[in-house]
Amino acid sequence: MKGKEQPQSVYEAFDADPPEMLAAKRKTIRLFERGAAYYYFKEVSQALDLFRQCLDECPDDRLARVYADRCEQFLRTGIHEGTGEVDLAVQWGPGIEIGHTVIDEQHRQLFASVNAFTDTIKKDRDFSHAGPIIDFLDEYVQIHFETEESIMEMNGYPFMDVQKEQHQRFFRRLTSLKREIAEDTDWHFLLFKIQVLLVDWLVHHTCKADRHLGKFLRLEKTTDRQRTIQSGADPA
Q1: Is 117 left (phi over 0), alpha (psi -120 to 50) or beta?
Q2: CA 210 to CA 44: how far, in whole Å?
Q3: Any idea where the domains of the chain sit in the sequence?
Q4: pLDDT score for 68
Q5: What is each CA distance from 207 to 28, 94, 97, 168, 221, in whole angstroms?
Q6: I want to staple 35 with a disulfide (CB 3.0 to 4.6 A). Which of 50, 120, 132, 175 is the partner?
Q7: CA 61 to CA 79: how far, in whole Å?
Q8: Which residues contact 14 (CB under 8 A, 6 or more apart)?
Q9: What is the mean pLDDT of residues 176-204?
Q10: Dist CA 219 CA 221 (whole Å)
Q11: What are the distances in angstroms from CA 136 to CA 43, 51, 104, 121?
């Protein structure tokens, strides 16, 4: 959404909706997800049909209405407003570094792989690109999560349980996605789901939760150095 410092997802939290609306939205979530995927790939006529099905079931679904209006605008004008944070290429930079050589290098590899994947599917929409990124993620979650959790434990990071829960949630989402890839043949939907998972992780975990870990590690390092100086030992 425009005007926001952090990009917003195409999805919304609707647990606060009235029970009837909540039930209707849950019933149509798969239609909405597929509509968002088709809209992202500019298959707008198919997307509009899916969003209209959502609105038939839940006329007060504001987000489905927003995307239906965007589809109709595209068909009239050719203007495509995008799908929020999914359109991002989240770039690696010094502001994202946490100050630990091993973790930062693993994060660089993740950013490079994710951006290469998103750039490629925008150009040729070839579903064969899904296999390599899923293989990369399978290995990444095993190595990176274990490394990161070990460092947090060694340094007494107070929010380690929160980080571990986020890691476990990502693993569950990846497992569910792999099951969908095995069972579904709609490549628009599957490529979009992969990209949502990846960009959401970069924006909301690596660029936020891991930056907090980095601040903690730098503070711990500074504190240890001050203690060393106060004890009269060589700080090097």
Answers
A1: alpha
A2: 37
A3: 19-84, 88-231
A4: 97
A5: 31, 11, 9, 18, 21
A6: 50
A7: 23
A8: 21, 22, 25
A9: 87
A10: 5
A11: 29, 33, 17, 16
Helices (H), 78-209: 101-124, 130-155, 160-183, 187-201
SS3 letters across 5-34: CCCCCCCCCCCCCCHHHHHHHHHHHHHHHH
Name the CATH superfamily housing domain 88-231. Hemerythrin-like (1.20.120.50)
Residues 191/44, Cβ–Cβ less than 8 Å: no
Q: Rg of the Cα trace of the chain?
A: 21
Identify the DSSP state of 98. -
* Exposure on the CB side of residue 24, measured as CA atoms within 13 A: 16
Residues 98, 212: Cα–Cα separation, whole Å: 8
Contact present, 9 and 86 (Cβ < 8 Å):
yes
Q: 113 is written with which tokens?
A: 């792989």
Q: How many residues are present in the chain?
A: 236
Residue for token pair 């569950």: 172
* Single-letter amino acid, residue 82: G
Burial class (CB in 10 A: 0-12, 13-18, 19+), 150: exposed
